[in-house]
Amino acid sequence: MTNMMKALVKAKPEPGLWMENRPVPEIGPDDVLIRIKKTGICGTDIHIWNWDAWAERTVPVGLITGHEFAGEIVELGRNVTDLKIGQRCSGEGHLIGKHSRQSRSGKFHLDPETRGVGVNEPGAFAQYLRLPAFNVVPLPDAIDDEIGAILDPLGNAVHTALSFDLIGEDVLITGAGPIGIMAAAVARHVGARHVVITDVNPDRLALAAKVADVVPVNVAQEDLKAVMAKLGMVQGFDVGMEMSGNQAALDQMVEALVMGGRIALLGIPPGKSPVDWSRIVFKAITIKGVYGREIFETWYKMIAMLENGLDIRAVITHRMKVDDFREGFETMRSGKSGKIVLDWT
Ligand code: ZN
Question: How far does the centroid of ligand 1 lie from the alpha carbon of residue 69, in Å?
Fold first, then answer.
């Protein structure tokens, strides 16, 4: 192993990412070193590329970006006894503290001291990544590297989808980005009856229909109420998953839900957004904000479902060598792609 590596760095406080040579990270006694094989480009990475207000506030200039990865362990810290050199793995990108009440009660994903790989701490868009052994998720043979590289966003989808019981329920998903599409596939897999997914982007709706057995609805052209009538839905959807951060989508979801319906919110609205709270109160709707993945329950569930036939591979629309990363980011920014996986081997 040489002691330098290629890494995609937020080198300047302006739009873009830059490929640089960086030292291979040194690991501590409780860490492992992972040789990265595949990485996924996330919406978060697009914010960092664009250098929007959030990124400027959050990401230090000079940081190695990226948090969706699969690779292989090549070095073990001296305290690490339960992992092996050569183990294929992905990993949780939230680095948690161990002091908060939430952490000490095992709700690791709710720890307020959490720091993000590729957001606050050196990331996975590199040939090597240092990761606490605690965060490593070994991959079974049934999960190859490109699926391993998108377990982070699949985890968001699974966490959102499993927020409420979906067996026999009618589900509305607003926002057909990769996470919305994967959530639709999960809802189907676990036994929802009708799964309707809405967007205004025809490419994304076409991709949704390709990945999962769902009803895509372009709300710019079709009337959701008419679709519901056609499906024979008497009252409305039982469960909603809001994945778009779009105000009109949330309004439409509240309107289309049954009395006592439940909503899981993963989409992030741009700033404060007006909500018709009285409608939510009078419909007795439960709303849950979803953050990250449950560490490590969501990982366990998604790996088990993948082993049991959950198929989300078609959500990967582009595969490219990491040297073509500019093309990857431009494609992603166009909104005309699903997941894009970069190959570091
Ligand atoms: Zn991500």
Answer: 10
Concatenate the DSSP letters of all residues of 68-123 into one string.
EEEEEEEEE-TT--S--TT-EEEE--EE--S-SHHHHTT-GGG-TT-EEBTTTB--
Domain ranges of the chain: 4-150+315-343, 155-289
pLDDT mean over 204-226: 97
Rounded mean pLDDT, 270-285: 93
In the block, which residue shows the tokens 């700033």?
A: 271
- d(CA 209, ligand 1 centre) in Å: 22
Active site residue 58: no
The answer to whether domain 155-289 has CATH 3.40.50.720 is yes
Cα 13 to averaged position of ligand 1 atoms, centre (Å): 21
Whether 47 sits among the annotated catalytic residues: the reply is yes
- Tell me, in angstroms, the distance from the centre of ligand 1 to residue 342's CA: 14
131-176 pLDDT tens trace: 999 999 999 999 999 999 999 999 999 999 999 999 999 999 999 9
Domain covering 4-150+315-343, topology: Quinone Oxidoreductase; Chain A, domain 1 (3.90.180)
Instruction: Report pLDDT digits (tens) over 15-74.
Output: 999 999 999 999 999 999 999 999 999 999 999 999 999 999 999 999 999 999 999 999
